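Researcher: Sequence of VWA domain-containing protein follows. Predict its structure.
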Amino acid sequence: MEQGFHFIRPLWLLLLPLGPLVLWWWQRRNDPLQRWKGMIAPHLLAHLVVGDSEHWRARPIHLVCAVIVIGSIACAGPTWELESPPFAEDRAPMMVAMDLSPAMNAIDVSPTRLERAKQKVRDLMSLRVGGRTGLIVYTNTAHMVLPPTDDAALMEMFLSALSTDLLPGKGQNSAAALALADRLLDAESDPGTIVFFTSGFDDAQIPAFVAHHQRSRQQVLMLAVGTTKGGPLRTASGAMQTGQDGAPIEAKLDDQALQRLASQAHIPLTSITAGNADMQWVQREALHHLQIMNDKSSVHWKEYGYFLCYPLVLLSVFWFRRGWVVRWVLVLGFVGVGAMPSTASAADWHVADWFFTPDQQGRWYYEHRDFEQAAQHFQNPYWKGLALYQHGRWEDAQKIFETLPGADAKLMSGNSYAHQFEYEEAKDAYNEALRMRHPFPEAEANLQLMTILIKQRADVPPEKQDEDTRPDQIKQDKEGKQGKDTSTVQGQRLMPLPADVWMRNLSVSPADFLRTKFSIESGQPAAASSNGGAPP
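Model: Prediction complete. Tokens:
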């Protein structure tokens, strides 16, 4: 893979000798000695030629030869550095494994280690626009919070709910988190990356990481959160932890254990930084791993031939010398006119349409989070539905996904139903997605969430209707559904809530939902919720 300096398109170098060859031919053709040497004796010819043969000056032919030489090198594509292919982040799945042990409450990095790690995940999501990222938490057990998704708002909702009191057990069973992340990424079509945020490591877990490095196609990255100097330890509620002598308990970064892991399991290790360089490193490593694991034909090298355009532009300045522009401007004019699209006009001047398809323009808008423009440009129905979904037009997105085949379309159809609070329809869509593809971790997680939300809705007593929300009429569809279902036409229709307040308006908070979920998976009684009440 590491080729050093080379040319992407070396066949263009065959034009390189053409420049010197043209110059030699021109000089030979315009040399008076060559034209007269067959008619005049050589010892007389040199004395009969009149002209300043010793003074050299640039001529148009010299620029032509220089353009041929420099242009052939530029077209050959000199390079020495790998480049991320377009939309590579879309295809590089990632799982974040977050340590929730009490040591993550230390304040040697502000505000706490856990809060700093959560902020780094947010930075990573902003770098991976369109990329699929999942979330796992672990102490002595490991649990999935979110399967790989590109929904930054959904990630933020659950990320903000994380605290060290969500998991009842204590410990650092990173091997369990590794196995769970590996299973989730195996369901993806492309090799992925597992990123650990932790402040320590148990040496007993090293053999599991060594075996993973030898057999798995997923790479592992370790990010150390904290300092070797350490800092005071706080509780999940923010109170200072003290020992029996009343002194604050200090928690230090277990740097030695992490170094042993990195050395024995060949895992890249780095510490979090104040800037964004650490997350940029994670993203580069993820894309580089994807390039290595995939076929070599998918590898893209950074094009450095463009820099040779600067000397070419500099050479073009000399074309406008007196006596030069007349000869060559017509050629350049005809080339420029021939390159113009025939349909271009002053009233319809869409330069982007000359070079990019509507779907490519839609992807550009999608990457820059202008989902309204992306939806207008996309012709591919699946991507058009995604843009509408991200723009918050869930009903329009659901109508598109309903017409598309495949498990992914059914998953997005269920998500669109869920945002419209139609949980039963969402549950049916997730079940259909699971029938088409199994395992499908994202559909399984959303199906579990819908089951809880449906139960929550059934347990809530109906509110008394006021005059504004009382139905104007109730109709029964006896022919289609045998009169079992009713549709209500209300005088005032309630608008769907935005995505960021969707979960907050339910009777269960993300933290309580996660606490209940983890307790059920651990086979333990549900812990008390953060507000003091029993979990739903």
